[in-house]
Fold:
Amino acid sequence: MKKNNYDNEVIKRKYYNYLENSQGYAKESIKHFKMSVWRWQEFTNNLDFIYFNQTRAENFKKWLKERNKRNSQVKMSLSHIHDTLRYLKIFFTWLSEQNGYRSKINKTMIDYLNLTRREVRIATQSRMRKSPTIEEAKILIESIQEKTEIEKRDKAMLSLTFLTGARISALSTLPIASFDREKLIIDQDPKLGVITKNSKRIRTTLIPFIYKEPLDYFLRWFDFLINEKNFKQTDPLFPATKMKSGNDERVGYYNTEKVSSNFWKSTSSPRKIFENRFKQAGLKYYHPHTFRHLIVREISKLPLSEEQRKAISQNLGHADVGTTFGDYGYGNIGDDRQTELIKNIDFSGRKTIEGGQISDQDIARIAMITISLQKNLSTPDAG
Structure:
């Protein structure tokens, strides 16, 4: 990409400010818009945005399909391309209404950033979300000892993730005040400084899975911070590692195996903790968000009422039950389970007793017993 185009940079700053302060997008969400615009600038060699047209839109789609993912040799997926185009369309639609661009950008041309209908179906179809099993989560959590403050913190953080499915941005910004020990509720409240998606307040009850120990690990950590570390209500629930300056020039800063009273500056460090802990446990790495998929996958196996499904959805911070159990694939049945269920269907239409099919002899016997009972019930008592 050539040197910065001054007009492009000015209008981009105006657009990102509009997204944040007018439309209320979180900084994490704005990153997606920035990446899509950056991709367009890379393709056009930072040509002024006023030169957007149908030909460039069509060629941009072809260019994306030939590109690899960042830091990878794998081609971009259709879902990634679809998202890039979707964010870019929003940008150019907004741009077409701004002074200096209104007469330059034809809104009809923006539609040429669409994929074909077939490609859109492929890109947006629901997919099973890969996530750890309960057994893998158990191996992961149990692999961490509690000899140091760092080990206690990491074990408690992974435990709370397993119990709540809280996003990593929230985990890294939770203060002590966010936890109600008596009710076992985490209050993800932006007013307390907690970073949540769309700055939404989420009251999350710790979910009592079959694997019960994580609750004890988390409670022990919470009590340790209060009783031994003397943490205040405004201190972090999962504080950053305490670093200390080395004694000579060869040693800059080193890990003290203790925690500080400071919040992490970003989610990079806690994400790295997840990655390292999976590696140390000898397990395939699953990023923090997949614990949300684990929770819904397990809960989907239960016979829930509609009210219970709504409660689970709200516990995860979703306004719509469909988001939790449908649109994003959280509640889909796994391939193996799908096969198992289909094989166990009685396609003959007969009922089953305790998993066994009823034979013709069984049906005749049940009919005779039923007739006999009806005769006895219709005969008056002798006495």
